[in-house]
Design brief:
400 residues; alpha/beta; Aspartate Aminotransferase, domain 1; Aspartate Aminotransferase, domain 2; 2 domains; seven-stranded mixed β-sheet; three-stranded antiparallel β-sheet; 13 helices; 41% helix
Length: 400
């Protein structure tokens, strides 16, 4: 047999780097060590019981076959109504294509709109799958960064504007941001929308963390003038309803684009899980007390993490109002310990403390002009007792 020759595009395919860190943490645990898992944005909180009961009921009622490739009409209409309420849109079920998770929306948005050689603006640091999918499908990934704002990170909109060229076709925005928890102000949302309209950009609004907001309510860029007709919203049930392993999400946008995304569903996975779609109906329309409880737990974890991190010499950390991530500045801590490499730094922390975290380097190549060093801590999958013990060990390690 001749050697297998892989397609050229495989060389451009990246990974979700948090899972690489997860493998290192698992190996450390397998060697008999305690691990404090701050690395992966999963939730160790149970899915609300009404959703589980609804899934069981759907299973018993035979909801185990194929559905329409874009999802059951009842869920599509319910989700359209929910986003009309929370985003001020005018969607109907024709504007909704159900997906097996939120992540497929990224690739289907690009496949629908991006030709090889098109430039796509994406946030860096950011979810690594943006860059991976842009490059895998032959586009040119053009990053824009985040900057320190008043009490939190925000996006470098001046840098975003400067990066737009005649080849720019698409813009990806992840307000309520993974990994930094950056949140747009009203002025930021207005400026982004004006740029998209001025340069006739089509926009992917990744709103995975729209409902993980602790004080007040989130506001979507799709509500800005000119944005509904040029935007596709990435919606996921994973975060709000603690349904990460259920794998259900949706793309919402102009009917012309949603129709093509529906055809991609036919080609890729036929349809999303039947009985999970009925459970998702109950997630949206049912009792929301368990959802509020999830937020309450996450907020307590956030507050404890921030307090403990800011008590460690060499670390400073904002208290963001959304997502379940922290992006502490560890520049002085790394210098104090004599490290200049992220991988060596977090590897040494894991070996000496059991604390497992991601670093800035897991979310894209640092941009020109970046001088500070950051880590990402997820507190969604670790309870208060473990947070306190893990960060106490981290403090002891860094201050020795």
């Amino acid at each position: 047999m001749k050697p297998i020759i892989l397609a050229d595009r495989v060389k451009r395919l990246g990974v979700e780097t948090a899972f690489v860190v997860a493998g290192q943490a698992a190996a450390h645990a397998a060697a008999g060590n305690r691990v404090f898992p701050f690395h992966l944005g999963d939730l160790n909180l149970p899915t609300p019981p009404n959703i589980i009961e609804s899934a069981y009921r759907a299973l018993k009622n035979g909801k185990t076959g194929y559905t329409a490739n874009v999802g059951i009409p009842e869920l599509r209409q319910t989700l359209a109504k929910e986003l009309n309420r929370t985003r001020g849109t005018s969607y109907s079920k024709e504007n909704v294509a159900i997906q097996p998770g939120g992540k497929p929306v990224i690739s289907k948005f690009l496949l629908t709109l991006m030709n090889p050689g098109d430039e796509v603006l994406y946030p860096n640091p950011g979810f690594p799958i943006y860059e991976s999918q842009i490059q895998f499908h032959g586009g040119i990934a053009v990053p824009y960064g985040t900057v320190v704002g008043d009490g939190n990170f925000t996006f470098d909109i001046d840098g975003l504007e400067a990066a737009i060229t005649e080849k720019t076709k698409l813009l990806i925005v992840n307000d309520l941001h993974n990994p930094t928890s950056a949140e747009c102000s009203a002025d930021d949302r207005r400026r982004i929308a004006e740029l998209a309209v001025k340069h006739d950009l089509l926009v992917l609004l990744d709103e995975a963390y729209f409902d993980i907001h602790y004080d007040g309510e989130s506001t979507s860029i799709v509500s800005e003038p000119g944005m509904e007709e040029r935007s596709v919203i990435l919606y996921t049930f994973s975060k709000r309803f603690a349904m990460t392993g259920w794998r259900l999400g949706a793309a919402l946008g102009p009917e012309e684009l949603i129709t093509i995304i529906g055809k991609l569903n036919v080609n890729d996975e036929s349809c999303s899980n039947h009985f999970v779609q009925w459970a998702a109906m109950d997630a949206i329309t049912g009792d929301q007390q368990h959802v509020h409880n999830i937020l309450d737990v996450l907020k307590k974890r956030r507050d404890r993490c921030v307090d403990l991190l800011n008590d460690i010499e060499g670390i400073s950390c904002f208290r963001p109002n959304a997502t379940f991530y922290l992006w502490p500045d560890v520049t002085r801590a790394m210098t104090n310990k004599g490290f200049s490499s992220y991988q060596e730094f977090i590897g040494d922390i894991l070996q000496h403390t059991g604390v497992s975290m991601c670093a800035r380097s897991h979310f894209g190549t640092p941009l020109p002009g970046e001088t500070n060093y950051y880590l990402r801590l997820a507190y969604s999958g670790i309870d208060l007792e473990a947070i306190e013990e893990g960060l106490a060990r981290l403090k002891g390690y860094l201050e020795r």
